[in-house]
Fold:
Amino acid sequence: MLWYKMWRESRIRFAIGAAALLWMCALVVALQQRVRARADEPLSYARYIWAAVYKANVLDLFILLVIVLGLGGVLQERAQGTAGFTLSLPVSRWRLVSARASMGLIQVALLALLPALLIPLLSPFFGEAYSFARALQFSALWAGCGMLVFAMAFFFSCVLPGAYSPAVASVAGLLAYSVLADLSWLARFPALDLFGTMHGAQLSVQAAPTLASFAAPLPWLALGLYAGIALGLIGAAGSVVARRDFS
Amino acid sequence: MTDDPIIETRGLSRRYGRVEAVRDLSFTVERGQITGFLGRNGAGKSTTIKMLLGMIRPTAGTGRVLGYDIDDPVQSVQIRRRIAYVGEDKGLYGYMSVGELIRFTRSFYPDWQPQIEARLLQDYQLPLGRKVKAISKGMRTKLALLLALARRPELIILDEPSEGLDPVSIEELLQALQEIRAGGTSVFFSSHQLSEVEQIADRVLMIDHGRLVMDTLLSNLLNNYRNITVEIAAQEPMPAFSLAGVERTRVTGRQARVLASSNVEGIVDYARALSATVQVTPVNLREVFLDMVRDTT
Amino acid sequence: MSVTMPLLFKAWRESSGRFLLGAALLAATCVLGVVCRDGLIGWYAPRGEFIGDRYVGYIYRLIYGGPARALFVILSMVLALGGLQRERLHRTVGFTLALPVSRLHLTLAQALLGVGQIAVLSVLPLLTLMMCSRLAHVSYPLGQMARFALLWFVGGTVFFAIAFLSAILFSSEYAALAISFVFSIFYPVATLIPPLSRYPLNIHHIMSGMAMPYFDAREALLVGAPPWMLLACMMAVAAALIAVAVQVARQRDFC
Structure:
């Protein structure tokens, strides 16, 4: 039932996020002819989808929604007066934290999957085709990198008081990360470039993959690194919650 | 001071979807009295109070507090300027210190009384520098009371004021309410603590399932209300006690317990005419309350 | 007795954490930009991309048209959140609504303070860059900073108004935040749809000057007179949104 609690607390955010992502993807597909006609140079449909969905607007939306999904938790419950009830449940704080983190990570993965479900399905209605395997590759990148974004918001919501400060800190943290990743001495390590990995530029130019070759071009080292850091951040958040006094 | 009622409602109703939280509530509260507002959890007490304060709009009916229409946003501000209110959850801004919250609240009321504030601060031993979120529930209740009492409001509305207070503080609170009544302030308070109501109230309003089920002076209740226990012989059918003065009848087997607000002699004569054994006992507020609300669930 | 000051004080205490954190982060971005310019300029302003002073192009890309502006937009929305719906969750709405002030006063005070905070945030890069650039012996035109501050203030006020309305409409504080974020991304895409595409409606572009007649992209400088009519229209839209929010707050039951 702990999962049910976590689902109930985040389901509106998740539903808003899912609806917004689907709507944005649909809009991008629907506007493809008009935007591509206005492009400075010829733009293939695959490249257009990459530029509009996986590199720009929809990706930005995904990142912001993942931050919102990371917010909440016992520290925020304290302000609403429900922390006492939650902490009196016969479960450890580690379990509370891990249940919330697990639910959040599942929601992040589902959000990441949505474009892959919609774009290949919708494209034929507008006279285009988009490979499901390619869309899945991008979803894998979003899910892997989204884990880190989620973990950052999750960590801040466990250490910073106030409902909105963790959101501000997360956005600022990501922007700072993006700026720092551009520093020349850091730019030598592409695995550290979270947004570069998320964009998946190399996938956009590759020929349409098949499901059989799905895993081959994914940056597994970077994704593993992010997953490790994300788990570390969630662990640190759990440790903070486990030690904190909730008066 | 006028003789107009300080609170007056006519057919006041509030519906949440299919649930009728308050139904056709009509009552008046006289000036200079302490009125206890009784009811079970979810009976509609807090909804009524919130309608009086303009926090919730009635779905039907009208209400006036100090002569102002409760449904008019402009007049509602006038109501709140002249009354004091302590809410049921004593929700106060946790991010302010006790001192800051007092200064904040003071700035809205020209009738603020610094000497009362100082006295209550001393009585309640509130830590001025501590954040409201860091003080105990009892302290928070005392702070909420200080913010309401450190003025000269014409009416003070309290929703479960003693919740979270220790027995000594409750006694002090009841005393304070009697003192401010003596100073001309009317008091309207809801409570589950019947002993508190019995101790200080002049008048009792009882609400159940959103309906008013009793509106009487406490002295009238204690002096005139009676429990009449009627035991009918085995061969006789149980009569219907539809007589003047009968408030409630509870039948258990051959025994009927009649709560009478008046006409006790008439009811007793009626029962005796049926060859029943009759016993008349005085009642207290607790018994009346249980009688009025228990069998209607 | 004026009740505006205590209400502004209350609104300040409710948002000061977010505001100060945001201001510190925005200022830090500007300082970082100036201090780390040697490492970043190659990325943000590659040689030959801008005519004239490369540092001007670099500051534009990093601050006025880049990450700092994105942070400012997010802050503008976050500052608008809270209010009576949040107080309901925190169980303080009873105390607030029992104060002898109208809901109009309550919500306007919150809006007024928020717009004031946006004004401060919009001039923050000007102040920070002016000081840092001097210390680092580089310079960015003061007039440009002032004009960008104006564009930021107006654009930020519109985003603030959207989030302000969202915070009144949605009872969940995170739902209001999510809706505001969705709007900030969805809106520029929606402006591509005809007939909207014919008008300069993209607030992000209006704030950064991108693809606007009052901006010279080659020099990364604002040119000509500020778009007063456009800015006035945006302020009118923001005012209308805040007015709707106030009206909703006046009508709503807070139980």
